[in-house]
Design brief:
The protein folds into two domains: 103 residues, Ribosome-recycling factor (Topoisomerase I, Chain A, domain 4, Orthogonal Bundle); 68 residues, 2-Layer Sandwich (Gyrase A, domain 2), CATH 3.30.1360. The chain is an alpha+beta fold. 57% of the residues lie in helices and 15% in strands. The longest helix is centred in the last third of the chain and has 38 residues. The chain starts with a helix and ends with a helix. Helix 1 packs antiparallel against helix 3, helix 1 runs parallel beside helix 4 and helix 3 runs antiparallel to helix 4. It contains four helices and six strands. The model has no long low-confidence stretch (mean pLDDT 88).
Amino acid sequence: MVEEVYSKTQDKMQKSIQALNRELDTIRTGRANPALLDGIQVEAYGATTPLTQLASISTPDPRSLLVQPWDRQTIGDIQKAIQKSDLGLNPMSDGVAIRLIIPDPTEERRREMVKLVKKRVEDVKVAIRNVRRDAVEDLRKMEKDKEISQDEDRRAQDKLQKLTDSFIEKASQVGQAKEKEIMEV
């Protein structure tokens, strides 16, 4: 019973770290990364469609992205969607594919991105603490219902605290690695 609560808590915390990794992949660092374009929605065929469903995205070199639509008729729509996005990228089309050159961010822009990374890491830390809080409430309810003893409750809470500390440390490490990548010139 206690192990079930612990296991669920560990899974939820792991998912929080995975979500942080996905979120940080969308932050532009100056290095080309196909994940930069993950959130872009394109008006094509009378519907809004994710860019990743309309084209393949590759990185021919560290400073550029190559978007190759499966249907050439969507090139104009894809260009418009990229220009509307807040990525600050200028798409160049040759009629077959779209090339995006990733400029080096300014020092000021790098600092803004670091602040954004810190905010997202802090949000994940709060989410991890909320997961711990929910698990502790479950344990207290189990103790109140006489399903576990007071000693088992205390041991389980100590174990949960250690788990929480380890996941918060992981979130910090992920954030520090991204900050280092952003500030790299």
